[in-house]
Amino acid sequence: MVFAGIAGVGIVAGLALLVRGFVGYRSAGRITGTSVSRIASLAVGEVLVSGVAEPIELTLVSPLQSVPCVYYRSRITESSDGDGRDLFREERAVGFRVRDASGAVRVFPGGARFDVPNRFDEAPGVWGGGVIGFEPRTGSVFAPGPESREAQIADLLTVHDRGRVSLLDPSGLPLNMSSGRNHYREARIEPGETVTVVGRVLPFADLDDPAAAYIVDGTGLDAADPEIAADVAEAREAGILAASPAEAWGNAAIEGFGIGRPVRAPELDPAANPPPPPDPALAARAAAAFEIAPDALILATSNEVPMLISLGAPTQVAARGEWQFVLGLVGAALAIGSAMAMAVVLQGGPR
Q1: For the chain, which residues make up each domain, given as ranges?
Q2: How remote is the C-alpha of 348 from its chain's centroid?
Q3: Of 13, 26, 11, 30, whose CA–CA distance to 325 is shortest?
Q4: Average per-residue pLDDT in the chain?
Q5: Is 120 exposed, middle or buried (0-12, 13-18, 19+ CB in 10 A)?
């Protein structure tokens, strides 16, 4: 029976490799079958672009290594071989830009499939102890977007006290995991890394739900609140839903208002003290991050053109997919061999 169990594990592992191989083969086919488009000359329709990932309004902080990124996939499993039950699993992404030598385009990653290999894959050693490189996130999931060069230099020169790590951070990541031999894995797309994106180019005004398309929340939580959705639908039907944040919030819709220096002149009571004149450079930076013209071309997913976001240049992505296909063929051979061995065992051995 022990041999039959080993054969069963071989069948499952082989089939998993086979499925992964076909997924990689399909991804490689999409990359090699589509020519790279210059961002400056994009037209509406399916395109493949490749360039550097740039954050816009927000970045994320990865759960297992606390690294700023625009996408992460993190997982902790109960056993060191990765086959145990999930103790933690989370996948998130925020909108970002892809920039090549000709220009930049916004990417709305909602509904996309990500081809990003693990860059953190660790488990405790044979004699136990801590996990090398494990720096759990202790603050918010989100962090500010790109900062000025001066702010980045000041941050690098500042010694940060991480403080005492709690058992649970605000995201619910269980941090007290010294017992057992857990397996830690994390994949990320960090600002400044090369990405390849296959998707559909369309005007921003044609995007059905920009807020939902901007953020990928793979935490398993239902982001759609039925009660809020019903209230919004009722307000829209009654014609009392504001058409823009400025109409709904007034001065509060101005970036920097109430938490710093507004980037545009607010509407104030004539008796109020006027604020300093807005900084033109700050206003231009806020407009580039938050204001999108209705006719601006963006990249998103659609039923006709599913989005694929891959880490690396097109040649790297294609090579990775082809290697996964080779492993898939090995997995198929393993599954077939294991199935034949199990059949022999169940029949009582060779006669």
Answers
A1: 2-220+294-346
A2: 50
A3: 26
A4: 77
A5: buried
The position carrying tokens 């109960």 is 78
The number of angstroms, rounded, from the C-alpha of 116 to the middle of its chain's C-alpha atoms is 9
List the structure tokens of 225: 């609140």
Q: What pLDDT does 163 receive? A: 45
pLDDT tens string 290-316 = 778 899 999 999 988 899 999 999 998
Neighbouring residues of 10: CB distance < 8 A, sequence distance ≥ 6: 334, 335, 337, 338, 341
Structure tokens at 113: 């499939």
Q: Do 100 and 199 contact (CB within 8 A), yes or no?
A: no
The two three-digit tokens of residue 149, written as one number: 């060069």
Amino acid residing at 48: L
Q: What are phi and psi of 67, to 5 degrees?
A: -105, 130
Residues 137/62, Cβ–Cβ less than 8 Å? yes
Residue 226 corresponds to which amino acid? P
| Count of other CB atoms within 10 angstroms of residue 32 | 15
CA gap 218, 108 in Å, rounded? 15
β 113-115/308-311 pair status: parallel
pLDDT digits (tens, 9 = 90+) for 58-80: 899 999 999 999 999 999 988 75
pTM higher than 0.85: no
Looking at residues 205-233, what average pLDDT do you find?
A: 73
**Mean pLDDT of all residues in 204-213:** 88
Beta-carbon contacts of residue 194 (< 8 Å; ≥ 6 apart): 50, 51, 52, 53, 311, 312, 313
Q: Mind giving me the DSSP string for 173-216?
A: -B----SS--EEEEEEE-TT-EEEEEEEEEEGGG-S-HHHHHEE
Which of 142 and 244 is assigned the larger pLDDT? 142
Tens digit of each residue's pLDDT (9 = 90 or more) over 166-195: 434 444 555 444 445 788 999 999 999 999
Q: Which alpha helices (H) appear in the chain, and where do they start and end?
A: 2-32, 149-156, 210-214, 226-238, 245-249, 280-290, 314-346
Is residue 124 pLDDT above 90, yes or no? no
Which residue from 37, 45, 39 is spatially nearest to 99, judged by alpha carbons?
39
Q: Which residues pair with 24 in a beta bridge?
A: none
